[in-house]
Amino acid sequence: METNRNDTIARETTRGQAGFTIMEVLIVLAIIALIMGVLVGPKLFKAGEEAKRRNAHTMAVQFASAYARWSLDHQDACPSNISELVKYMTNKSDTKDPWGREFIMLCGESAPPETEGFGIVSVGKDGKQGTDDDIKSWESPVK
Q: CA-to-CA distance for 39 and 41, rounded, in angstroms?
């Protein structure tokens, strides 16, 4: 009879020690969340910014293509504003870049030589023209 009692005590002791406490599980989850936030978070943010840059470039190129169609109807002229080009676009687009700022239209003498008379610029994330983050219709979006 003694052996049965010892077996019962051993099983009860083993059952009480098995598994993790809720505190241990929460600590492990907190550590995993911290690691994900430090390692993965910045990469996701960078990917989001890169997507905005590519989207802005695509929109700028669409406006430049719309200008080519617009100029067939309006020779030797520049549009008075960028919204005139929207009706010449296959994908009707907003005249604002992904950061909510108006695209800048360069036409005629204000356009750089490499644009052949017309170009579109987004001032990018910083909102300032002439900085490294500007997106231009005549340049590659990847820097």
A: 6
E strands in the chain: 104-107, 118-122, 135-136
Cβ within 8 Å of residue 106, ≥6 positions away: 112, 115, 118, 119, 120, 121
- 30-51 pLDDT tens trace: 999 988 888 877 777 778 888 9
Greatest CA separation for the chain: 109
Give the total number of structural domains in the chain.
2
- Structural domain containing residue 19: 1-39
Q: How many C-beta atoms lie closer than 10 Å to residue 126's C-beta? A: 11
pTM: 0.68
